[in-house]
Amino acid sequence: MRRREFITFLGGVATALPLGARAQQPLLPVIAFLSVGSRDAMSGRVVAFRKGLSEMGYAEGQNVVVEYHWLEGYYEELPSVLNDVIRRRVAVIAIPGSTPVSLATTAIPIVFGVAENPVALGLVRSLAQPGGNATGTNFFAIETEAKRLDLMHELLPKAARIAVLINPANVRNAEATSKSLHEAAHRLGLEVFFFNASTSGEIDAAFVGMARERVDALFIGGEAFFSSRGVQLAALAARDRLPASSSLRELSQVGLLMSYGTSVNDMARQVGIYSGSILKGAKPADLPVMQATKFELVINLQTAKSLGIEVSPLLLARADEVIE
User: Fold this and answer.
1) At CB < 8 A and 24+ separation, what contacts does 211-214 make?
2) Model confidence over 292-307: pLDDT tens digits?
3) Could you give the CA distance from residue 85 to residue 97 in angstroms, rounded to a whole number?
């Protein structure tokens, strides 16, 4: 259900209630939950977000309403969605895993989960004292990219030509990923080939380009759009017998060889906790930005066997999850 359909649905529910019943309904606070991913890909984050809310005493549909807005990779829609929820003066705007285009309001609290330092992004004054109407969690997606390439090199020591898939629609993320991996690849003596994709069709085209370049492995940038295309990516990688890594455990679970990164579900839970805290009266300016401490290495042993890749016992022992 797209954003406009969802808003229409809410209006239909309210209209369907008898006038007396509507008058008796208490006005519940509304949290706008915004994601550039898809509902299916982000289901784990929704569960974690609800858990965070419950830890603060809030149950969706009982004492709080959560509106979900799924942009499915269409970053250009984020400003208009933000403007819409700001106009309707929701109680909290929760954005776990997507950078707000700008803090277009100083009146509504914003709780974010961002991949980079929010001070550098201009979202807060400092980590300890955000100082405005926004706070949240930094989950270090960019900072872990070089480490993920290290682990990929350890798992695939003979892979020298690495394809890197990035989404040019997420400009800042694409630039940061490119810079980080150029440096890490140079250190490891690897050759990297960058491919852009911001639609399903462009993902298909990128794999054609990878075959043409005869790359040895695929490094998928940590990006919400790619998480919503996990099945497509896994199917194409399997078709081309291409070992692939991502930053999300969900993509390893659908068939990619490995993943390494922050637990985004833990991040979403923290966004839920802060959203509940704000509903109870806390001010974002006084809630320090949390920094992720939980990192996960997942290896899909079934995929490794199908590709003829032998995973060392030492690497298996370090994995937080092994899919067999």
Assistant:
1) 211/240, 213/161, 213/163, 214/161
2) 888 899 999 999 999 9
3) 18
For residue 15, the model assigns a pLDDT of: 35
Backbone angles phi, psi at 216, to 5 degrees: -95, -25
Dump the DSSP string for 92-121: EEEEETS--S----SSS-EEEEESS-TTTT
The predicted model gives 119-123 an average pLDDT of 86
List b or e across 85-114, with b for residues whose CB sees 16 or more CB atoms inside 10 angstroms.
bbeeebbbbbbbbbbbeebebeebbbbbbb
Rounded-to-integer distance, Cα 228 and Cα 67, Å: 19
**Residues 25, 28, 34: CA angle, nearest 5 degrees:** 135
DSSP symbol at 125: S
**pLDDT at residue 217 tops 90:** yes
Alpha helices in 104-188 (DSSP H): 145-155, 171-188
H or E element, residue 4: helix 3-16
**Contact status, residue 262 vs residue 109, Cβ threshold 8 Å:** no
